[in-house]
Amino acid sequence: MQERIVGKVKRVNGPVLTISGITDAMMMELVHVSDMRIVGEIVKLDGDRATVQVYEDATGIAPGDNVYGSGMSLSVELGPGLIGNIYDGIQRPLEEIRTLSGDFIGKGIEVPAVSHDKLWHFVPSAEVGSKISRGSVFGTVQETERVEHRIMVPPAFKGELTITSIAAEGDYKVTDTIAQIEDESGKSYPLTMIQHWPIRVPRPVADHLDLKVPLITGLRVIDTLFPLSKGGTVAIPGGFGTGKTMTQHSIAQWCDADIIVYIGCGERGNEMTDVLREFPNLIDPRTGLSLMQRTVLIANTSNMPVSAREASIYTGITMAEYYRDMGYNVAIMADSTSRWAEALRELSGRMEEMPAEEGFPAYLPTRIAQFYERAGHMKTLSGGDGSVSVIGAVSPPGGDFSEPVTQHTKRFVRAFWGLDRSLASARHYPAISWLDSYSEYVDEVRDWWNGHSQDKWSENRRRIMELLQKEVRLQQIVKLVGPDALPDSQNFILEVCSLFKTAFLQQNAFDDIDRYCSVEKQVKMLGVILHYYDLGSEAISKGVPLVKVRRLQVVQDIAKMRFTVSNDSADDIDKLELKLERSMMQLGSLYDE
Amino acid sequence: MMSDTMANDRDSLLRNSEKALLSGREYRGASKIDGPLVYMRNTHPVGYGELVEIVAPDGSIRSGQVLDTSDEAVCVQCFEGTDGLSLPGTKMHFLGEPLTLGVSEKMLGRVMNGLGKSRDGAAVPASSDERDVNGTPMNPTAREYPRDFIQTGISVIDGMMTLIQGQKLPIFSGNGMEHNQLAAQIVRQAKVRGGKSDFAIVFAAMGVKYDVAKYFIDSFEETGVLDNVAMFLSLADDPSLERTITPKSALTLAEHLAFDCGKQVLVIMTDMTNYCESLREISTQRGEIPSRKGYPGYLYSNLAEIYERSGKLIGRTGSITQLPILTMPNDDISHPIPDLTGYITEGQIVFDRNMHGSGIYPPINALQSLSRLMKDGIGEGMTRADHPHLSNQLFASYSHVQDVRNLASVIGEEELTELDHHYMEFGEFFEKKFVSQAYDEDRSIEETLDLAWDALSLLPSEELQRLTEEEISEHYKG
Predict the structure, then answer these.
(1) What pLDDT is stored for residue B291 in this prediction?
(2) Mean pLDDT, rounded, for B145-162
(3) Are B395 and A98 a contacting pair at CB < 8 A?
(4) With an 8 Å Cβ cutoff, is A511 touching chain B?
(5) Which positions ≥6 away from B256 have C-beta within 8 Å?
(6) Quick one: DSSP state of residue A507?
(7) pLDDT of residue A286
């Protein structure tokens, strides 16, 4: 639709404007305000008035300034070139903005999200005359070495479509017409490599599928104790300094998703720079390619406009859904959803809406639910199979999990990785508390895990969780009367749990071996620790003193196996297990009879 | 369509020239005055955030800024307070541009108020470079990731929460603790390893007492750095609105010094709590919907706009390092001000009342403190190869000391195991020898790390799980 004047500014109050003289504006329509062309969105219509929230600093906007309507909702541009890019909250490429306005971000800049000049090598996968429908793939482009970008019919079409012409294999710009299709009524449409989609509307899918495959993150505490399914949702709450961002970074680096969408929503500028500088140099252990080749970054740092922060979450998940529609497993990290909720609160306050809990608008839970519901393992329109997993960080004020954002988020996610301040203080990372956290996906991924662990996973997991629970009770006793009051058999439980924490739960993100732990290694590590518990308990029951068991050299080896045994040689842990058996046997023989 | 666009163009051209003509026009008679806010009806279309000159009935000129504008009325906040203004006698000029600060390198060595006007009698250096004090966000792609280690000469900071050039690292203190001394000591001792660099200090005081400002001035003078310090003072008896502009003015100058003049700028802001109190005051007066503890919902965004103005840019030599000081109300770290600050800054240095009570200076609670940028600024080639593991081990061991102490307070110290006694001894050494140091004691990083090994050597070597065997065999003295 042609751009037109939809009204004039009546009042300016921070990023919220009142517009009067409204003609035919639509709800959620994208608008540009004044000659500075500041981007905004219509959020309320009332008689001849409308409320607009602007995505840039409002300084200089005056009553009487024109408001130009674009005729469409705030949308993202989807096509080859998204991967490896870094965007602000409303999908403007920050690299491009930098070439246009320098080191500091100027106002009113309009740049397409993907380059309209770059040539892509298009390979058609459909022929003239073939019958297709919305969501069908009709060609491919190698977007990065790692990602094959599948060009799809936009989901807005209806019914059966016929391809009337299609471009031959060759290099094209994203805006070039690469196919012509005809609908049932005989009307013809050109197709390009890009499509637009409004960010607040979920992209359609054919069906929901079950969540039986875990998203392997390489973090032992997550994969083994609190697994997340591909297509699942999880919240990571934690006060400042407990390692939310570190955990998110680790997952973004090493999880086995095909595509990562990382949303820095109201977080630190330097952290985004860190990701930006580090990711291109990190090599994915599975493909040997740079991690940037599967990553899209959205950086709306805390000092960038608050309305764009509100939008950034939707921008990110829409891009994630687009890649899911191609049949990929996408993982999206939102750091942090609390900043997004606070943006909602700030805008709601400026619109003078009635506040609910702690000043948050009453529709906060609805918005949180809408966001997390866009995750899932789906059958796509083209009949493929793709997933969007959402990993949302929550920053509860004062680290208090009873605040509204954490509480409402808990209602809509099925896994919860609670970060614990005392663990973080002791530099126990990842500081995921084994007592507060849970995962409802345990049952769903059991078959997959047992298939990868000779049926040992669920039993071993149950045993270690039980030991950890016992430990809590024993620790309470120790706090009152000291460890000497406990018998050796119970002290040994404390000993095993402490070993489990240092040797298994802790993981060093800066160690080349330990930063990522393969499934096989995790299974064996847990196995050997439980084996130590079994053999040790047996020895102690025979009268071997705890000190002797603890001092065994092999225990030191187990404690350090996360650094010494590489992922490729997980079998070394079997040798460790043999050594453990031998040592225990020798020790036991000294105390026989 | 074509003629339509042309009409649009003509329309906007007309409006722009109209705006230019109308700016500076004088309006007489306010419709309402409420605290620092002055409302004026029937003006020309005034832009949001425009700077306003307010002429009081006695002829004195004050400045203000447009907070809310509509075609009916304009709401202006007056920085110097509204005392003495009358409804009919107040005159206003809307200047058509946002609040700016003329920046110049010559401002170093000068004392100014929160708006950048002279406070020391001499004229403010002329500048042709007028900058919007609100600044614009740095593009994350233009940032350079900070990794240059700043040696503060304070063991607990250098060893366990290393300060990096371009970092924002606040001091969370409480009333009556030595945060000012620590800040002054950091200013005196801070150096970048390997060479001298062109440094400058920008000091912003918000709502502090005159004596505090005086303490800093004296301490800068003693060190002989006074000529390299630009001071923006908005003392406790200055209008609270001026306080909300003070850090922004200071950072606007800092940006000029760092990114145009290539200096390494250290910005000290004290006390951020007063800044937030002023924001709350104004927000309440405007009748905004409050969020936690009456602070406005935009407190986070507002603080972020200040703290995020630090860092380094690719291809420019300068840097801005921020050292904001805030006093935690009632020593409560979960209070909204320290809480939101902690979510924005790259770590925090937390003071502890108990350590202060037992005479330890600096009273830094290592376990609660953190430097997020430390990981990339330490280790081989930057400090020393054993530094990363060593600091990790200090945190782990000292955290265990707390457990042992809790246990000892229940069962008595005599009942502790031999190992736990070692931990008690380690804890004592750590607090009294490693953390504690004199106001004028400047320890090099090597001294700091050796001292840390002295502390850890009080523990049996098999307790040092975070260190590698090579590191232990090289440095362990037990």
Answers:
(1) 80
(2) 93
(3) no
(4) no
(5) B103, B104, B105, B129, B131
(6) -
(7) 79
**Is B399 close to A427, i.e. CB distance below 8 A?**
yes
By Cβ distance, the residue of B334, B344, B346 closest to A399 is B334
Interacting residues of B195 by C-beta distance below 8 A, sequence separation 6+:
none
Question: For residue B7, what pLDDT band results from cuts at 50, 70 and 90?
Answer: low
| β-bridge mates for residue A131, sequence order | A162
Q: Which of residues 185-244 of A touch B (CB under 8 A)?
A: 239-241
CB-count exposure of residue B155 (10 Å: 0-12, 13-18, 19+): buried
Contact flag A241-B342 (C-beta cutoff 8 Å): yes
CB contact under 8 A, B289 and A349: yes
> Is residue A153 pLDDT above 50, yes or no?
yes
- pLDDT over 90 at A319, yes or no: yes
How many CB atoms within 10 Å of residue B412?
Answer: 10
Cα of B79 to nearest chain A Cα, Å? 18
Question: Quick check: B424 pLDDT over 90?
Answer: yes
ipTM: 0.84
Contact between residue A140 and residue A125 where contact means Cβ atoms under 8 Å apart: yes
Predicted local distance difference test score (pLDDT) of residue B18: 65
Percentage of chain B modeled with pLDDT above 90: 53
Q: How far is A11 from chain B (nearest CA, A)?
A: 4
Is A425 close to B292, i.e. CB distance below 8 A?
A: no
Span B369-396, mean pLDDT?
91
Is the Cβ of A10 closer than 8 Å to some Cβ of chain B? yes
pLDDT (tens digit, 9 = 90+) per residue, B102-126? 999 999 999 999 888 888 888 888 7
Cα distance between residue B103 and residue B100, in whole Å: 9
List beta partners, residue A8: A20, A66
Min CA distance, A266 vs chain B (Å)?
A: 8
Place of tokens 């490599």: A193
Q: What residues of chain B lie within 8 A of the CB of A274, using their CB?
A: 145, 376
Residues in chain A: 593
Answer yes or no: are the C-beta atoms of A549 and A536 closer than 8 Å.
Answer: yes
Question: What span, in angstroms and rounded, lies between the C-alpha atoms of A181 and A189?
Answer: 5
pLDDT digits (tens, 9 = 90+) for B201-244: 999 999 999 899 999 999 988 888 888 999 999 998 888 888 98
A202-217 pLDDT, tens per residue? 999 999 999 999 999 9
- Output the pLDDT for position B3: 47
Contact B342, B168 (CB under 8 A): no
Cβ distance of A269 and B135 shorter than 8 Å: no
Name the strand (E) or helix (H) holding A367: helix A364-372
pLDDT at A534 over 90: yes
A337-350 vs A404-412: helix crossing angle, rounded to 10: 120
Whether pLDDT at B277 is above 50: yes
CA distance B14 to chain A (A): 12
B407–A482: do the CB atoms touch at under 8 Å?
yes
Any B CB within 8 A of A61 CB: yes
Whether residues B416 and A18 touch (CB distance < 8 A) is answered with no
Average pLDDT over residues A366-375: 95
Candidate from B139, B346, B406 with C-beta closest to A268: B346
Q: Sheet holding A188-191: strands in order across?
A: A131-132, A161-166, A179-182, A188-191
Specify whether the CB–CB gap between A154 and A193 falls below 8 A.
Answer: no
The crossing angle, in degrees rounded to 10, of helices A442-451 and A457-481 is 120
- Rounded CA separation B461/B463 (Å): 5
Q: What is the pLDDT of residue A72?
A: 85
Q: What is the mean pLDDT of residues B398-414?
A: 89
A268 touches chain B (CB under 8 A): yes
Task: Name B108's Cβ contacts closer than 8 Å, sequence gap at least 6.
Answer: B200, B227, B228, B229, B230, B257
